[in-house]
Design a protein that fits this description.
The protein is mainly α. The chain contains seven helices and no strands. The chain has two domains: about 45 residues, no CATH class; about 110 residues, AhpD-like.
Length: about 190
Amino acid sequence: MSTSRIPGLSPQQAGPFTKLLYRITRRRFGEVPEPFTVLAHHSKLLAASTVHELAAEKASTVLPTHIREIAVYRTAWTLGCSWCVDFGAMLMRLSNLDIARLEHIADYANSSLYSADERAAIAYADAMTATPTTVTDEQIADLVHRFGNAGVLELTFQVGLENSRARTNSALGITAQGFSTDSCRVPWA
């Protein structure tokens, strides 16, 4: 049962554009992501968000997938967005990444399960997510050495985007949907 503060828009309530998006996302992810169903109450923002997410996904090709996904996951975990943690774990599983090590994300700095590059990206995600941010010049220089300017920009953009997603979902009361366990609840049930 949905727990969001604004209930998702059911397919029966949705217009043609929203129904099309629901079909596409259901085909891609097995279920319609609840944030889409909530945002569907504002069709222009739903369209803008969809275009933005797809463009960000297509443009993010510089960093290795495992670096980007672990930094985004850590951001969601740090902010306590259960929906984003759930969805992120599914994305990592679908990318054939090791999700068992996510159980050790709290101790990433000391864990041999994480590479030096992953630890640097996670530490950066933490620094960006802190309020106020705690990013240092030395941290940026290290990341540029590891990933290049374009890699740092991609990492920064993706962590910032996840901050937005996680904070939005948390504010709206959108919680885990079951993507990481293949048992998605139907948002409008």
